[in-house]
Amino acid sequence: MTDLDDKLVRSLRIDGRAQFSALAKALGVNRALVAARVNHLLESGEVRVVAGVHPRVLGLGALAHLAIRIARDPEPVYGAIGGLDGVAFLSETTGPYQAVAELRLPTMEELADVTARIRALPQVTEVNVLLYEHIIRTLFLGEEPPVPDIELDETDIAIMTQLQRDGRLGFGELGKMVELSTSACRTRVLRLIDANVMHIGAIRRRPETSTQIVFGVGITVRTEARDVVELLTGLPELEFVARTVGRYAYVATVVADSIHDYNTIVRGLRALDSVETVETWIHAEVRQELYERDLDRLAARRTEVPLRSGTVVRGHRCRPRARGAEITRIA
After folding, report:
1. Please, what sign has the CA dihedral across residues 89, 168, 199, 230?
2. Contacts of 98 by beta carbon, 8 Å cutoff, 6+ apart
3. In this model, does residue 195 exceed pLDDT 80?
4. 3-state DSSP call for residue 89?
């Protein structure tokens, strides 16, 4: 991808529905060039623009990072894990573990069940689990937003479903799909975005020919680690960082343009006063990456899913639920 393409993708991550004229003004280029490049990226499949829906709206309260050690040929294991419920991300990795997976599930009981299923696979010899305690930065958003307090109905669910497939659908076209006028559709979409129910952003396909290095970082600390957070959140290509419960205090995903950039980042982390250890792994091939979430669960459970005191789903006030984790890119 060209330097302009990189800048366009970064801008579209922040606002996937940004108009060509706004992108052109922000980047200091002409509108025709921006339109041509964005259309090429979308039509080629290199970039998708989709709606990411707030996890607690979907009833997801348990989010975990799994590092999986696999004996012999890992291919059958990748296929088996990718088909399990709640596996949002699956990557072939370097290092002592052959796979990293992200699980997003409604309850800790369901998380434990799916983890047990992975452990039971014949070639799996170890599963190391990290729980996300607090999300600091995600691919689409910054720090995880507050629990949304909004009344949802079947039309809202239909809108989110369509925008998960194509986040740049025009208001007129989207309105026809959900049987709303253009102005009413626009009002609904902006309401969902402003309430943090969803965010629309760009996802870049990761081709095997890419020269970029996508790597995960696991960090243990000896003291309060504000310096770790400051360094990581200051990186332009940081995709994700969370405070975790398990073998690491923090886990992150970073994209480096070269081995030199990778070394610079890792050495910078190791030099911090608060850091005890830094471990890294490379995502050699992403096998599954699902930022969209099927909303059938919400549609089916709209009368009983507990979101938050004051939140209403199809006219039914819901009970409070425990704080969950943000849907996001795994480390």
Report:
1. positive
2. 68, 69, 70, 74, 77, 92
3. yes
4. strand
In this prediction, residue 312 has a pLDDT band, given cuts at 50, 70 and 90, of very low
* Residue matched to tokens 């709606």: 51
| Residue 232 placed within a domain | no
Closest to 252 measured CA to CA, from 289, 286, 216: 216
- Mean pLDDT over residues 120-130, rounded? 96
Q: Are 23 and 38 in contact (CB under 8 A)?
A: yes
Please tell me the total count of domains within the chain: 2
In tens, the pLDDT along 7-49 reads: 898 899 889 999 999 999 999 999 999 999 999 999 998 898 9
Written as one letter, the residue type at 274 is: S
Would 116 be classed as within a structural domain?
yes
Whether residues 8 and 150 fall in one domain: no
Q: Residue 22 carries which side chain, given as an amino acid letter?
A: A
Q: Quick one: tokens of 206? A: 């990761």
